[in-house]
Records
---
Amino acid sequence: MVFSADGNPKESANINKKINQIKSHYPFLLDSLESKLSTLIYNYLSFGQFELARASLWQLASINPLKSLQILRRLILGPPPEWFSSPSVRSKAHLSWLCVIEFTAISKKFSTDIAPIPASVINRIQFDILLTSAHVQFDESCSDEVIRELIHYHKALSESETSSTSEGTSSTTSRQPLQVSLYKL
C-alpha cells in the first residue's frame, strides 16, 4: 500500500489504484522498484530537487521503510561533495536538516526499530546551518580561518558537554567557562 506524503487516505487510494493499473498493464516497470526508487531519490537530490526526492522517499517507505531510513541516515551524515544546491536547499547542511525531518516523520509513521539520529549529530547540523547562513549573510566576507575557529570552538563545546554529562555534572556549569573564553578572544 502506498501513502501520500500528507497521509490523505483518498489520495492514497488513488495512488494505489494507479499502481494496480500499472501492475496489470506494465509489470516490467515494477521489477526491482526499490532499486529504481533509490536511484531516483539520489538523482533528484544530486540536483537539489528535494520535494521530488521527498515524494519518492515516501513511496519507498511504503514499500520498505527501513531502506528509506537507511538512505536518509546516509544523507544526514553527509551528502556527496559534488551535489548541487538550489534555492530551496541552500547547502549540504540544509539538506541534512531536511533529511532529519523526514527521518523522524518516517520513523514515527512506520514505527521502525532503527536507532534515532544522535543529538550530537543534530546539533552539528544546526551549527552548520548557522555557519552557512552567516557566511551568505555577510556576503561571503567571512574568511575560512574564522569558519575553522568557530568549528573548533563548537567541537570543544560539544566535547566538554559530552564529558561533563558522562561524569554526571550539569552541562550548564561546564559550558560557562568555554563560552567566556570564546568571547574574550
Note: The chain is about 70% helix and 0% strand.
---
Amino acid sequence: VFGVVLRRFDTHSEVDLEAEAVLSGIVSEPRGDHYVNIPLDDFSNEVLVDLCNPNSKFGKVILDFDTLEGHHLPCSSFTEERACYREGTCSWNATSLMCEWSTCHDECTEATCNTATGCTWDSVYGECGRVVECSASTQDACEAMKYTMTG
C-alpha cells in the first residue's frame, strides 16, 4: 500500500505534516519507502513517470510483483482469483470475491505449520503457507513458478 501527500506549495504546512503522519501509519512496510510528501506540481515527474522504473521509489516494489525484501505482498493487493492462488499465503474467498490470508498464515512455527492440514513451511520466507498444487512436470519447474508440488 503506497501513499502520496500532495501539497499545494514547496513548503510544508502543518496540515501537510499531519497528513503525512496519518498516511505513514497506514502504508505497508517498509513505511518510509512507501509514501512521499511532494508538491502537486511534482506529482507527474516524481510518481507517475517513474512508476514502472525499477530504480524508483515505488517502481522497485511494483516490478518485484511477488515480494519486497522477503515479505509477501498483502493478500488484498490481489484482485483476481488466479493471482491470489499463486501467493501461497493467500486464499480466494468465493463469497466475498476477495483475496485473504490463508488459515496457514496463522501458524507461527515450522512444527505447527507442517502438522496443519494443507499447509507447508516456506524456509525462504520463514513462514507458513498453503500447499499449492503444480501441474509442471518437475519440482524445479514448480519452484520456479513459486508453487509446491503435491502428491
Note: The two ends are 36 Å apart (CA to CA).
---
Amino acid sequence: HYYSSALAFVQMVVLSDLPPYFISDLEFKLGLTRNSAGGKSKLLLDQLSSLHGEVGALFILPCSVSSILIPPSNQLSTKKWKEYLVRKPKVISVPYVEMKGEMCTYYFFIQSSGDGECKARLIHSANQISGAAAL
C-alpha cells in the first residue's frame, strides 16, 4: 500500500451520526513530528484537540494498492505529450495504459482525546463493509 502524504478534510460530524457498524475499534494517537512542530500542522492539531464531546472531523487518506509506487498525476511529466501536440498530428492516438493496482480511500474520525492531543478512529466505508452490516 502506498499512502498519500496528507489527510484531506471532508466535514465536521457528531460521532452518534455515524452508524456504529462503520466505526472500527482501531484507534491512532495523533501528534506532531519535529519537522511539523510549528505552523499550519500545529494550528490544525490545536483546533482539533479543542473539540470536546462527540464532535470531530472526518478526514480521508487516499491509498494506492500496488506492487509499485504510482506517482500522483501532478508529478507526471507532460513534456512528451506537449512535444507530440506541437507536431500537429492529424490523428491523435491514445497509448495503451496498463492499470497496476487500485485506488482506495481510508476514512478517519479525528477528535480530542481530552489531554490536549487527538485520536483518530478508522471509519469503514460502505465498500469495505460490503454488505456485512444488516440495515
Note: The two ends are 31 Å apart (CA to CA).
